[in-house]
Amino acid sequence: MAGCKTIKTARTRGPVPSWPRGPSLPSVLLAWGIASLFAGTAPPFAGTGAGAGMGVYAATTLLNISSSTTTTIMLDDPSTSVFSLPAGTMASFAIAAPSDTAMSSSSTTAVQIMLSVCQVPLSLQNADSTTAFAFLAITPTLFISNDSSLTSSPGPNDGVTELALTKAQRKNYAVQAFVDGFTDASFTSTTSGGGIFIGVFAPNSTVSDQWTYSLSVTSSTQESDSIILEPTAGLRVEGTDSSSALLTTRAYPTNSTTPAFSSMIARTSILSTTLASSLCFLQNGLEDVVSSRRINQTTTTRNTAQGYVKTQYLVEGLRNGVNYTAWLVETAADGSRKLYPPNYFATQTSTSCQLIYDVPLCPLVAYAVPSPLSVTPEALISFYSTNLSTYLSAFNRTLSTFPCNDSTGDFSPVATCQDCLDAYTSWLCAVTFVRCTDAPEGSTVLEKANWSDSWTLPSTTATGTNGTSSSSSLFSNEGKTEWTSTIVRDNPTASRTSSLSSDNLATSFPSLVFNTSFTPERASPFPYAEVLPCLESVCELVGARCPPLMGWACPRAKGGMGKSGYAVLKEVGRGERQVESYGEAQNGGMVKESVEGKKRDSDRFGNVFCNSLGSDMLLAQQFG
User: Name one Pfam family in it (predicted).
Assistant: First the structure.
């Protein structure tokens, strides 16, 4: 390549993610050829609203480009062109300059140019490491010029040396590489410049096979055919068990048009991770896609403001112990599409945990809990809910002794008695409906830790005028470094679920019929790993939102590791978070996409740091 060219990328990556546990990533063998790439055989999407589940636009044109072609191909505005190039070759395109008759007020127009990888050479489709694709991020692929005096044939051998360009000329020339299989740029087309000239180069990565690309162009004066890469996630993985997963979208008003969401879920692979931002690949080249028939789509008001709902996907029939990737596409009324960053999750290996949601007394519960074999979700919810009403009634009676409805006697300028009751309910649900995941393989002994079994249910009676507790204060755990997110529960007496021991199962679940082949020992969920409740947003938030005279106290030493164990939130960058739009905030405004607080209970890479039931967002909004 002549001269020195500065490679620009569509967007940058965040820190290297910590992937969810699972087996080795499967290799992928693509079956589609260029002749059938857009023949209406795109993998199924699950979606709602106008445009949901749609495949490729009717404007898509298949181009037959030979390795010896030197002719510049003229592109319509808007248009999408799909073509294949042998490795080491390039194709040239051009968009005609605007005419004075087409542009009544000026002879310039902004044009969006988007290039996606649809298929990679066969020799790369079996790659077993992301290092096989490292060259994509540093190899110039998309060359653009809007000044014919610089070059009308941009490419690796166009003779343009960027270091020799003036500051003004650098606005008229760009060289870009792929990020996650996608790159885009916006250029102004002018009459004086002669239009826009595009070169697409297929990397010569020691392969001889072909690359397949999708090139889209659209201007602000034409119907939109654009793809917008959103910087933040569009989905939240609520929880998984060994065969199912529960995902939700952002919240939207019930009195508005339902967003045209389309979800896609597939087994995670090296190829799908490498091309995660290429909608062309996702719709036409992705394998091991979960059938839309196995995705039950509903709506939920869980963790939303009044008048808002979320779209909810229950994905069933998944394989146990497997990594999956989920994408969300949102189609606008003008035809443009938003592609959100993928969420990653792993199904559990064992059957110790069962996914439950829509719990009457604990509507924020939506995750897997310890479950004996052969117990239905309804029976499991009923079992865990046995004493909830009693605890809530007792707490409410104590709370009613405070002047909740008297503005002159409020105990806090920022919290109400309803806030207090809501915080206590979240805490009670978190410690009752234990969040469950796989115990590490080979776990047989409870790990050594500081115990706090002597700490029990906090008192719900006032302690007198001098009974203010000083042992619990928000954000009082700075400096503690030895927190763990999960605890192996193999000893029923040292867990929150002692009633699920093999000795107690017959009493806890009379419907279970045991015999020589189905014993209590086999039915018991032990051992499992508990995802501990979040100390700051679950336990300490009760103390922050309830009358000080109630004397609420949380355990201190490393969160405790026995029946009273807790974990803590962790800082998560904006690009690594799960979807965070919950609708209207408590202060009457709209929740911004990027709240100021940085601590979260999970990230979009499948890591769960503690069980917050959504209270991490309340903490971020109020104290961030």
Answer: Mid1
